[in-house]
Amino acid sequence: MSHALTATDFSRSYCYYVPQGHSIWVRIQAECVCEVINQASGERDVYVLGVRTQTGLRTEPPNDALDPGYDFWMTFSKKYVYVKRNHASYHTNNPTRVPVEAFVTTGWHLESAAARSILTPAEVLSA
To answer: How far, in Å, CA of 106 to CA of 75, rounded?
Structure first.
């Protein structure tokens, strides 16, 4: 029996969240998907990485000394949202792990598309 191959269509896939205390629904383009499988138990965890985004929140009036802004990457799982931040004005290692209950809602939408195996360098170039 033959199964049709599919792949994630990242142009139509995204992660999302609604922060507590806000009515804004944030959508972030999905960059990649990873499924981790525990070989002993068979338990599966899915992680979806969003593309690099930048903060849009600023102090009033904007002040680069007080609020330099930052780039961030978010990885979504069923239990946590992992956040990696880099301040735009200097290097800092500022990761966090936030339980999904800290948001009104979180999740992702992964869109599949038909796929085929590419086996040779010529096929890669052709694709």
So the answer is: 11
